[in-house]
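This section describes the prediction task in plain terms. A model, or a person checking by hand, is given the sequence of a single protein chain and must write out its three-dimensional structure as a string of tokens. No templates, partner chains or ligands are provided. The sample shown here is typical of the held-out split.
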Amino acid sequence: MEKCRVCEIELNAINWFPSLKKRGSLICKKCNNDKMSLWRADNRERANKMALKHYRKDPKKHHDSVHKARVKVRVEMIVAYGGKCNHCAISDIEVLDIDHIDNSGASDRKNNLHGYNLYRKLKKEGFPKENFQLLCKNCNWKKHLANIKK
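The expected answer:
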């Protein structure tokens, strides 16, 4: 079996992009993504031009791929935090939200950390459990109302 030339893990269908496999490039998805992130950071203007070119070519396809990526990160976040409401145990993905246990959400929202941006930050930090929990919208609202009454 082939091994990644960077990290030397064994390459398989899960951790090896089909396009890289087709070209015979022995690099795993993680190492390739890391390499591309560095390239984008060093070539920001060129990367933006390329992205704009793809967007103009097919805006609907671009929108669909962006939506798919955002949904994927949200689902990863929900799974990482248990997949159900911490209070009532409902597991309907459409009604689950991330909640700041210490009610510090306002400061995050001021720094534009809400929704997808917050999910991405949590993913980068390994989904920390000490200050975040999963609540359904009803339990989250009840918690909010209880804090107002105090």
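For orientation: Residues 92 and 138 are 12 Å apart (CA to CA).
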